[in-house]
Sequence to fold (379 residues):
Amino acid sequence: MRIGIAGAGFSGAVMGRELAEAGHDVVVHETRDHVAGNCHTERDAETGIMVHRYGPHIFHTGDERVWAYINGFGDMQPYNHRVLSTVGSRVYSLPVNLLTINQLFDTTLDPAGAEAFIREQSDQSIDEPANFEEQALKMMGRKLYEAFFHGYTWKQWGLEPTEIPASVLRRLPLRFNYESSYFAHPYQAIPRDGYTAIIERILDHPGIEVRLSTPYSAADREHFDHSIWTGPLDAWFGHRLGRLGYRTLDFEEIRATGDFQGCAVMNYGDVDVPYTRISEHKHFAPWEQHEDTICFREFSRLAGEDDIPYYPIRMAKDKVLLEQYLDAARKEPGVTFAGRLGTYRYLDMDVTIADALAAADAMKEAISAGRPIPALLQG
Ligand code: UDP
Fold:
C-alpha cells in the first residue's frame, strides 16, 4: 500500500517506520522545515548547547517495549529530572515531598508524622474530586495547594483550577519521603544527540520518503491508498464545527555566562510572576560542559489561529466539540487519526510511542486481513 502521513513527530515517524518495515511505501509530509514536532532539538550556534526548541522534553517510561524501541534509534543518557519552585522569597523542592512539607510548614516531620499532618490539612469531605482544585484540597490541603498549584495552574491554563480536570494534577505525586525525582518511572533519559536525531533515524528507511516544509492537503490524499493525520483533529475538517482549544507557549531567551539558575527547571508559583518557569538547557545534558548558558522564560497563553498548539485544554466545551469531531473522524474514509494533536490528548512522549506502535500493529493486521483500517487509534 502507498501511505501518506501528515506530521513527522513521534506518532508519524513511528507509524511510518513500522509500516515501511511491513513493506508499505510511506511518504511523510511535514509542514515545518525539521522533523520531530515539538520535541525538536538543535545545537545553539553560539554556545553549542542542545536546545529543546519547543520547551523541555524529558523522556521517562515504565514501558519495556517503548524503552527498547527508543534505544534502538539513539544513545539515551540517564537523566534524573528534578524541579524546584520559587514561591515568595523562598525556593522549595518539587514535586511535593517531605522536604517541601517541612520547608513550607517550618517543621521537622518524619514520614509518618508528615502523612498524618497532611491528612489533617486535607479536605476528607471530598469523595470524588470534580476538578483540579478539589483534587488538590483532598490530596494535600489548602496551604500546599495555594503555594505551589493555584498560581502556577492559573498561569499555565488561564483558568481557575475549579475549571480544570482533576486528571491534570494526578500527573504529579505527593511523597512523604525526601525523594525529589520529578518522575517515578524506572527509565528516565535524554538522547545524547537530541530528539531530532532519534526521529531522523526512525525515518531513515528505504521505504520512507520525507518531504519537509510540505503541508499535507486534502488533495494529497488522492495520491495514497490510505492517509494518517497527526495534525490537529479539527484542522483536518477545516474547523467546520468550531475550534478545539489549545494553550500555546511563548519563550523569552536569556543568555549569560556560567550558571544562570543552577538547575534545569525552576517553576514560579506566584501569580504575579508572569512566567510559569525558566528552563536552563545545558542542565538537560549534565554530561556536557559549556561555559555559557541559554535559558528560556516560559509564558503560557490561549493559542490563536496561527499559534503552535501545545497543550489541549480539554474543558467541558472542548470535550463536547471533541466528541463531534471524533464522530466525524470515525466516518471519514481512508484516514487514520493519531497522536497528541490528531486525537486531542495531553500525551507524554512514551505514551505517544506506545500508541503509535499499537496503532501501526492494528493497521498492519487490518491490511493483511483485508479489513477496513480503523479511523481512530487511541490508547
Ligand atoms: N503544576 C503546578 N505547579 C507546579 C507544577 C505543576 O500547579 O509547580 C500543575 C499545573 O497545572 C501543570 C500540572 O500540574 O499543568 C502538570 O504538571 P507537569 O509538570 O506534568 O506539566 P508539563 O511539564 O506537562 O507542562
The mean pLDDT is 96. Residues 2-42+50-78+192-239+314-369 form a domain with the Rossmann fold fold (CATH 3.40.50.720).
